[in-house]
């Protein structure tokens, strides 16, 4: 084993660029997955099965197939259908869509956990349906789901290296590029491996404090 | 699609299934070893097992695969066959997630069961084998079933290293036909069917284990 600190130092500028791309993909992907997940969860509660069944089948399919292949699908098939997006946009959409099928289950559990008395009270007060959701159910449900959503953000972080496969230069992509240019594999790969461990450890620490604040 | 291309896809499927079986086996061994170590009496054992899960759950599976393929060979002089390198990376990573399941299920067994074992003079090994595991294992099956589907999805990552699995064969067919919608739809469907069969299998296993307890 030969470890070369100068290689680590040379890698730092590229590492910083990669880290920024990773974090941006993570932030945008989280945003998409939070919104779409809520949408799926609400659609799964519509009274007609003509909405519930298609949504249920599609989300199940997306959840049970590899994100990597979904990335390839979007990256190569969308241009054939005349929709050309940048690699980064494609990656963010794919990650957001994939994880929305997980967050929808989180939202569902959160909505189910709102006591039935809240629904009954809303009915007794003659609140319209939209207002019941916005003012009574969702504020209580969303509070409960924050910790579980945070866990999926951490899981998403660990899936961002897959974007490398569709040419996005996030952390792993940068490390691979550096390895090929300088023919040193050990240092860049170890640096980003440690970076992932550190970021996810910090994130789960942050999450635990947030959890204590929100769920009392 | 020509029959030659179908053969390519079939061979990719076979590689994916083999990789899944091998890494699931390694992952199960790691999960039980580390998960049980986390409930050990001595703190150094618990601490080391805790470090293992934190490190392997903290990093990304794809980064781990790169590490096993590129850093391990020069560092230790091992050159692993791709199949074993993939098995090692996936088994160690998903084993760490499995260890949390094992620890959780062991912790969920009623403490009175353990005390009963002590009162009857069982050794720690006997308590684990005769009392704790038979009650904890059926509870582990549903989360293990989810993890197995995650592992199946994880096997696609080895295609990035050029291993000829199902996802990789999809890429080859795309290059051959210059057309992607059809082949990627098939590949996704095959993954979905395998995942469906896996969940069915695990549900059957759960029923049998629970029936055995009664």
Automatic annotation (TrEMBL), chain A:
Transmembrane annotation, as ranges: 20-43, 81-99, 189-207
Main location: membrane
InterPro entries: AA_ABC_transptr_permease_3TM (IPR010065), ArtM/GltK/GlnP/TcyL/YhdX-like (IPR043429), Ectoine_EhuD (IPR014341), MetI-like (IPR000515), MetI-like_sf (IPR035906)
Alphabetical list of SUPFAM superfamilies matching this protein: MetI-like
Key words of the record: Amino-acid transport, Cell membrane, Membrane, Transmembrane, Transmembrane helix, Transport
UniProt keyword annotation of Ribonucleoprotein present: no
Domain ABC transmembrane type-1 residue range list: 19-207
Coiled coil regions, renumbered to chain: none
GO MF term list: transmembrane transporter activity
Biological processes annotated in GO: amino acid transport
Protein name: Ectoine/hydroxyectoine ABC transporter permease subunit EhuD
Automatic annotation (TrEMBL), chain B:
A cellular component term, taken from the record's GO annotations: ATP-binding cassette (ABC) transporter complex
This protein's name: Ectoine/hydroxyectoine ABC transporter permease subunit EhuC
Classification via Pfam families: BPD_transp_1
GO biological process, alphabetically ordered: amino acid transport
Family the UniProt entry places it in: Belongs to the binding-protein-dependent transport system permease family.
Annotated TM spans: 12-35, 47-70, 183-201
Location of the protein in the cell: Cell membrane
Domain named ABC transmembrane type-1: residues: 13-202
Classification via NCBIfam families: ectoine_ehuC, HEQRo_perm_3TM
Keywords: Amino-acid transport, Cell membrane, Membrane, Transmembrane, Transmembrane helix, Transport
Coiled-coil parts of chain: none
Membrane topology type: Multi-pass membrane protein
InterPro entries from the UniProt entry: AA_ABC_transptr_permease_3TM, ArtM/GltK/GlnP/TcyL/YhdX-like, Ectoine_EhuC, MetI-like, MetI-like_sf
GO molecular function: transmembrane transporter activity
PROSITE patterns xref list: ABC_TM1 (PS50928)
Keyword ATP-binding attached: no
Keyword Transmembrane helix: yes
């Amino acid at each position: 084993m030969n470890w070369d600190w100068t290689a680590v130092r040379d890698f730092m500028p590229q590492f910083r660029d990669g880290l920024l791309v990773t974090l941006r993909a993570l932030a945008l992907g989280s945003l998409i997955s939070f919104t779409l997940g809520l949408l799926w969860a609400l659609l799964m509660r519509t009274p007609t099965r003509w909405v519930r069944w298609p949504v249920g089948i599609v989300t199940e399919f997306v959840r049970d197939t590899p994100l990597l292949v979904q990335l390839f699908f979007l990256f190569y098939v969308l241009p054939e259908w005349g929709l050309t997006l940048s690699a980064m946009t494609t990656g963010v959409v794919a990650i957001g869509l994939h994880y929305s099928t997980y967050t929808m289950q989180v939202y569902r559990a959160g909505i189910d956990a709102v006591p039935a008395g809240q629904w009954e009270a809303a009915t007794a007060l003659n609140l319209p349906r939209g207002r019941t959701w916005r003012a009574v159910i969702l504020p209580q449900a969303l509070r409960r789901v924050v910790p579980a959503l945070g866990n999926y953000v951490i899981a998403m972080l660990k899936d961002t290296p897959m974007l490398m496969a569709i040419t996005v230069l996030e952390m792993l992509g940068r490390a691979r590029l550096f390895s090929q240019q300088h023919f040193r594999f050990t240092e860049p790969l170890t640096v980003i491996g440690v970076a992932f461990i550190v970021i996810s450890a910090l994130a789960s620490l942050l999450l635990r404090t947030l959890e204590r604040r929100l769920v009392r | 699609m020509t029959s030659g291309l179908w053969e390519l896809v079939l061979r990719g499927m076979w590689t994916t299934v083999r990789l899944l079986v091998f890494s699931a086996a390694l992952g199960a061994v790691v999960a039980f070893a580390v998960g049980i170590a986390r409930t050990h009496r001595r703190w150094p054992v618990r601490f080391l097992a805790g470090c293992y899960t934190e490190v392997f759950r903290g990093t990304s599976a794809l980064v781990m695969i790169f590490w096993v393929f590129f850093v391990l060979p020069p560092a230790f002089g091992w050159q692993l066959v791709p199949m074993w390198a993939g098995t090692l990376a996936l088994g160690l990573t998903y084993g760490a997630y499995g260890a949390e399941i094992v620890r959780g299920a062991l912790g969920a067994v009623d403490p009175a069961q353990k005390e009963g074992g002590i009162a009857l003079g069982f050794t720690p090994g006997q308590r684990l084998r005769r009392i704790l595991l038979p009650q904890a294992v059926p509870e582990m099956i549903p989360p293990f079933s989810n993890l197995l589907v995650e592992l199946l999805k994880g096997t696609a990552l080895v295609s990035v290293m050029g291993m000829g699995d199902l996802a990789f064969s999809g890429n080859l067919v795309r290059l051959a036909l210059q057309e992607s919608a059809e082949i990627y739809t098939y590949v996704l469907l095959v993954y979905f069917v395998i995942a469906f069969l896996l969940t069915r299998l695990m549900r059957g296993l759960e029923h049998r284990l629970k029936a055995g307890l009664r």
